[in-house]
Amino acid sequence: MPPARPAIGLLLAGTLVAARAPRAMAQDALIGAPVASVRVLAADRDIDDAAVRALLETRPGRALSMADVRESLVHLHAIGRYSAIEVEANPGPAGVDLVYHVTPVREVREVVFEGTLGLSEGVLKGALRERFGRAPRPERAEQASALLRDLYRDHGYFGASVASRLEPEPGPDRARLVFSVDAGLRARVGAIEVEGEPIGGDDALRRALRVGPGVPWDASEVRRRAADVLDNWRERGHYEARLDFTTTPREGGALVDVTLEAAPGPAVSLVFEGDPLPEAQQRQFVPVRREGSVDEDLLEDSKRRIEDYLRGLGYWRAEVEYRREAEDGRLSVVFTVRRGRPYVVVEVKVEGLRAVPREELLATLRTRAGDPFVQATLDADVAALRALYLERGFSAVEVAASVEPSGRTGARAPGDGVFVSPQIAVTEGPQTRVGAIAIDGRAKVPETELRAVMRVRPGDPLYAPHVATDRSSVLLAYLNRGYRDALVDVSVTYSEDRRLADLRYVVQEGTLARVDHVIVTGNRRIGAATILRELGLAAGDPAGLEAIAEGQRRLSATGLFRRVRVDEVVRPGGATRDVLATVEEGPATTLGYGGGIEGGRRLRKGDDPTAPAEERFELAPRGFFEIGRRNLWGGNRSINLFTRVSLRPKDSSESTTGDIGGYGFKDYRVLATYREPRSVFWDLEAQLAGVAEQGVRSSFDFTRQSVTAELVRRLQRGGAVFGRYEYSKTKRFNERYDPAEEPLIDRLYPTVGVSSVSLAALRDTRLDAIDPVQGSLLGVEGELALKAIGSEVGFSKAFLQGFLYRQLPGRSRIVLATGARLGLAAGFPTTVPVTNPDGSPAVGPGGQPVTVTVDDLPASERFYAGGDTTVRGYALDRLGDAATLDANGFPLGGNAVVILNAELRIPVWRSFGLVTFVDAGQVFRRVDDFDVGEIRPAVGMGVRFKSPVGPIRADLGVKLQPQTFADGSREQRTAFYISIGQAF
Question: Which residues pair with 581 in a beta bridge?
């Protein structure tokens, strides 16, 4: 604390605000005087932090008031940076000079141990890290010392002493925590006493625990070994075994006497009498081995589980009893199972149906003729029927069920089974519909906005849960607009015959709450301005519930913080409130690396270059490394470098000797990006990227260098609009298609530069982008390349895509995933001079240069399909027709593509699942060639394993229409793929 000063002062300790009494007369004289200056000092140094000064209500020019001082102290305390705050007020010629003396909370940057440790620093730091995280906070230093003392006692240092002190480091808020340790002597085991009768005798127990006279005492090791002993005893049937120990240090702490308390209990055996019960069900329903207990609660639960299991099989009157039998130190738990006779449903009778179609109601029943009769299923049917009637406005409906023996023989029941006919009686009562809907008390929110959030409309069946939901929706609309003490009530007025009900919502709007201060705490490197910008709240804004929740979501989505919490500080009796954003920063530098393998069918040339393309299954090992830096210059700016390398098998196009074995560095990608979250305008995000890559396509290999500049406008509900400029240089080599069929534009431009602008819109409502089960992804993009902006060729492209994911009703958690993609492109006419074989310009009659006009897209910009993410069943890029495949089956690409996908993702067991899919698509040479009848389908199935890095999948696709090439060869009917991530 700063030394006492001859001035009027206020002291804040914790949340207590108190006045210094000795100068009360002088203090009263200053109240109401104008504030001349305000300073914030830490160790007599000015804190020139705009975010801190903005929290002060005592501003120059305003009259000094105790309310403003208290409010300022509360704000400064809320940010959590200061352990003590003292306010000094000095009279001056221009008014009152205020000084806030603050003592910063020091952050522990280093933990140091000194003295005679006895234990390694790794053990000590590990114990602290497990309890307190990276380092204990200064105010928890004594708790940390107590933890270390307990740790030493656990390891046999009964006389250890641990003291802590905080040593300041350079900087006002940094310190290191020093623990002074005197471990003393480590106790050794003195006398050992065994109480009880351990299995195998006292000596066997001592050997298993490795406890003997003179051995250094370590309680943690003894506990670990005792757990192993207990596991062994329970494996031998002693399910209620207990093993513990107590210690008594002798004077001086050099020896410790140990008492081992062993209670193995009786050996327990399970016996099942009566009707047989499969062994797997015995273990599942009577888990005494797993629980290590045979107490009454467990046995009673086991009895109930067995009965439920048998009744679920149709043994309606099944009964189970259990008893204990103790003899010669053994305990037998005997379950007597009486299944009784099986009951079979012959017919389900439903009476009283009038207003609702019988077929519709019967379709909801799970109790059906020919099935075993299960009382729980019938009860569920009754509840489902009643819920259906209630939802349709039959509020007085009554549904009852009874079961009667049936005289009909129907299907044969097993053994001596009994036929029954469940009967469900429905008393419908009148149907009530909604009449008028009134909203009273509303003044500050338009009625149209409130009705827009309501589900119930006049004429709808009256259903109480829907009315209650509307009441909550209206209240939420007010809360989101800042009316935080709003109340909404609803009343229902019925007509005489109860066939019509008027709804009246009564609103008490209350007072609009506004944000007074937005306080940011916990940030060290990241500027408060960056956090406030992402939070999206400012002084004077309505304190809406949704706005505060959205602010927390946006802060979390930046990826800059380990934890984010946004709270409200309510002012008693006031209409304003402070918003407190507490953050814990994540590391500024991120590293990532890993490896994997990809498997799939690819087209390769055989030994004969004129032979058709061969489909080969290839495995390609790959690895990646990524390093990124976030929070550049205190803002949410980031820079990232990503590198990936794959090893691809060589083929004949890469060898002059015909040797195609082994792997070569074929596939790599280096991507550098810079992201500016707010550029040009407040709500635009900018990104600059540079790429250098070498890749493999089915018909050629390529290298590409590109730079991209992108602006993004984020919208609500997962929407975004993108504007992009890109310049790329692409060179093709190792072409595998027939040179005679090579498009003219590819001969003219083996290396092509493309300069293009594009505009795209995207809406993504998927809950999980890696493995979605709900939501959708919709996108549209248009691209334009022009010579006027530096492109060597001109073209326009459009690409539309839509994916929909739905979890099907029921408990199976099956996901239906569907997708559709459509790409269309057209080249602009380009006039190119013809060159001679030696590279000189070709000259025609009259000495005029010879030119040729092309209006196509270069190979790097054309569309391709086939492979594990498009149409499975086809090798990579292999899908096409005679116009988009050469004579040997190598793809040439096209100006139009359509891809359709649908698959069922079926969970099977734990992390394993199956998929069945139908894919279809086609690549067309020109847009005018587009023909729905030419779309080619494929079907297949695959397996999924949900790993920590994403779904690992293996898919087998089957072509339904394999085509025959000019030489008479046919496509292989199947294609197999292994990869990470869902297909779409």
Answer: 520, 566
pLDDT at 22 over 50: no
CB 211 within 8 A of CB 221: no
Distance CA 269, CA 290 (A): 14
- Please answer whether residues 313 and 342 qualify as being in contact, where contact means their C-beta atoms are separated by less than 8 angstroms: yes
Helix (H) and strand (E) counts in the chain: 17, 43
Cα–Cα distance measured from residue 434 to residue 494, given in angstroms and rounded to the nearest whole number: 9
Burial of 969 (0-12, 13-18, 19+ CB in 10 A): middle
DSSP letter at 716?
S
Q: Which stretches of 449-607 are assigned E, i.e. beta strand?
A: 487-494, 500-508, 514-521, 561-570, 576-585, 589-604
Q: Which CATH number fits domain 433-507: 3.10.20.310, 3.20.20.450, 3.20.20.140, 3.40.47.10?
A: 3.10.20.310
| CA end-to-end span of the chain | 62
- Amino acid letter for position 587: P
What's domain 591-980's architecture? Beta Barrel (2.40)
pLDDT bin (cut points 50, 70, 90) of residue 573 is low
Instruction: State the amino acid at position 894 in one-letter form.
Output: G
Of 972, 917, 921, which is closest to residue 943 (Cα–Cα)?
917
The pTM of this model reads: 0.65
CA 581, CA 568: separation in Å to the nearest integer? Answer: 9
CA distance 462 to 431: 8
Q: Residue 409 is which amino acid?
A: T
Q: For residue 453, what are the contacts with CB-CB under 8 A and spacing of at least 6? A: 470, 473, 474, 476, 477
Residue 139 DSSP class:
G
At residue 745, φ and ψ (nearest 5 deg) are: -65, -30
Q: Where do the domains of the chain lie?
A: 8-104, 114-162+169-182, 188-263, 267-338, 343-427, 433-507, 514-586, 591-980
CA atoms within 13 A on the CB side of 471: 18
Q: Which CATH number fits domain 8-104: 2.60.40.150, 3.30.565.10, 3.30.70.580, 3.10.20.310?
A: 3.10.20.310
Count the Cβ atoms, other than its own, within 10 Å of residue 356.
17
DSSP structural state of residue 333: E
Quick one: DSSP state of residue 976? E
Q: From CA 526, how far away is CA 53, in angstroms rounded?
A: 18
The per-residue pLDDT for 525 is 79
Q: Which of 796, 816, 818, 798 is nearest to 807 (CA)?
A: 816
Say which range, 139-148, 314-323, 371-380, 560-569, has the weakest mean pLDDT: 560-569
CATH class in words for 267-338: alpha beta
| C-alpha span between 78 and 58 (Å, rounded) | 17
Strands ordered across the beta sheet of 487-494: 433-440, 500-508, 487-494
C-alpha distances in angstroms, 399 versus 121, 429, 797?
71, 11, 62
Does domain 514-586 match CATH 3.10.20.310? yes
Q: How far is CA 175 from CA 76, 102, 138, in A?
A: 21, 17, 9
Question: Which residues on adjacent β-strands are paired with residue 194?
Answer: 260
- As given in the structure block, the two tokens for residue 500 are 């019509």
**Residue 562: how many other CB atoms lie within 10 Å:** 11
Q: Are 750 and 731 in contact (CB under 8 A)?
A: yes
479 near 489, Cβ under 8 Å?
Answer: no
CATH code for the part of the protein at 343-427: 3.10.20.310
CA 41 remoteness from chain centre: 44
Better-scored residue on pLDDT, 719 or 21? 719
